[in-house]
Amino acid sequence: MLTEQNILDALKEVKDPELNKSLVELNMIRNIQVDQDNNVSLTVVLTISGCPLKATIEQDVVNKLKEIGANQVELTFGSMTDQERAALAQRLRAEAGGGQSGQGGQVQGHTAISPLLASDSKTQFIAVTSGKGGVGKSTVTVNLATALARMGKRVGVIDADIYGFSVPDMMGIKQRPTVIDEVILPVEKHRVKVMSMGFFVEDNSPVIWRGPMLGKMLRNFFSEVHWGELDYMILDLPPGTGDVALDVHTMIPQSKEIIVTTPHATAAFVAARAGAMALKTNHEILGVVENMAYYQLPDGSKDYIFGRGGGEKLANELKTELLAQVPLGQPDREASVDNPSPSIYPAESLIGRIYTQMAENIVQRLEVKTG
Ligand SMILES: Nc1ncnc2c1ncn2[C@@H]1O[C@H](COP(=O)(O)OP(=O)(O)O)[C@@H](O)[C@H]1O
Ligand SMILES: [Mg+2]
Q1: What angle, rounded to 10 degrees, do the helices at 243-251 and 211-223 form?
Q2: Mutate to test the pocket of ligand 1, among 135, 137, 138, 139 (most ligand atoms within 8 A of CB)
Q3: pLDDT tens-digit profile of 68-117?
Q4: 222 and 75 together in one domain
Q5: How far, in Å, is the centroid of ligand 1 from the Cα of 132?
Q6: Which residues are listed for ATP binding in this entry (predicted)?
Q7: Ligand 2 (single-atom ion) residues, CB below 5 Å
Q8: Does residue 343's CB lie within 6 angstroms of at least one atom of ligand 1?
Q9: DSSP 225
Q10: Any idea what the CATH number is for the domain that residue 19 is in?
Q11: Is residue 107 within 6 Å of ligand 1 at its C-beta?
């Protein structure tokens, strides 16, 4: 017969997907009862009652208990008391604050929940910029992020286009972040952790905050969000060289940049301004992505609808590499019926493979360099 201890031991291996800690360690498993026929009943105490990952947790617990020989499994769900939640939030803060640097990363005077910005942080920051909107920055951001995640990297995305946030929609994210006593947990999709202003805006109403508020928002995305450890943090910047772009430059001086352009010469000229700013602020430019570079015809030939050469010209001008030329194409809707993420190209598609290559190239360059 199974014992309470057997069950606790088994559930030590089941983690809360958002906090990446075992349910047992989080004291989320209570009231365990087992009868002679190995029918198990227990209560799972969720961090918040509307926990978006309830179904996942339920399945993981049931599967694990069946694995060790449970017969029927009956779960009851509860939620933590305010006091328990506050204690958990305090623990999350303390853990981040107690990181190797001992200060958990300072964000302009605030102690951050995530030590991403600490001086000994191993996280590689990549800001995706462009001279103007509509060239595919957000598309590049979400596809590069998912390509890196497919390689097993731990990846976060900050949608820093505060007015023009689009990452949640593009990735097909419907849920809002879980907030535990003011500690915000990023939303995870395609194994990428995401934070966006879009999560906090009701009914798509316009965001009317101005300069200082924007900077504060961006800092909050670091200081109030429990990112956990990340290998890569990709930032989708607003177009141009405005306040937010400048803020990123000052907050994350170690950030590298990818500049997105279309193949048209004028677009490349405008993008050069974003590049000039990166150079002026001493941000290393990882390279240029030429998006909408051509249309691939069924016979294999390429139709350069929007002109040709802009990406290469810009890369030369900025003395950097042309990382990729991404053709025109919509993600295959058929392939993503189950999990509609309107702007994510499936890994096996032509464009999906281009993003995989780009991710491999970037990993090789950054990880060889930092050893
Ligand atoms: N390679 C591409 N082929 C076809 N459509 C694309 C491509 N890249 C981006 N798009 C589309 O172009 C529009 C602008 O892209 P987006 O990533 O939102 O640009 P930005 O973030 O620079 O404003 C979106 O509707 C997007 O789906
Ligand atoms: Mg965008």
Answers
A1: 40
A2: 139
A3: 999 999 999 999 998 898 888 888 877 765 443 333 444 444 455 667 87
A4: no
A5: 12
A6: 131-138
A7: 137-138, 161, 166
A8: yes
A9: B
A10: 3.30.300.130
A11: no
Q: Is 137 annotated as a binding residue?
A: yes
Residue range 124-177, pLDDT digits in tens: 999 999 988 889 999 999 999 999 999 999 999 999 887 788 999 999 998 888
CA angle (95, 97, 101) in 5-degree steps? 115
pLDDT at 22 over 80: yes
Expressed in angstroms and rounded, the spacing between residue 27 Cα and the centre of ligand 2 is 41
Examine the domain organization and report whether 76 and 188 are in the same domain.
no
> Which run of H or of E encompasses 12?
none
Q: Is 98's C-beta closer than 6 angstroms to any atom of ligand 1?
A: no
Q: How far apart are CA 335 and CA 288, in angstroms?
A: 29
Residue 207 DSSP symbol = P
Instruction: Count structural domains, the chain.
Output: 2
With bands split at pLDDT 50, 70 and 90, how would you rate the model's confidence at 338? low
Based on the fold, state whether residues 126 and 182 are members of the same structural domain: yes
User: Treating both helix axes as pointing N-terminal to C-terminal, what angle do 54-67 and 4-11 enclose, rounded to 10 degrees?
Assistant: 130
Q: Indicate the SS3 state at residue 62.
A: helix
Q: Evaluate whether residue 86 is within a structural domain.
A: no
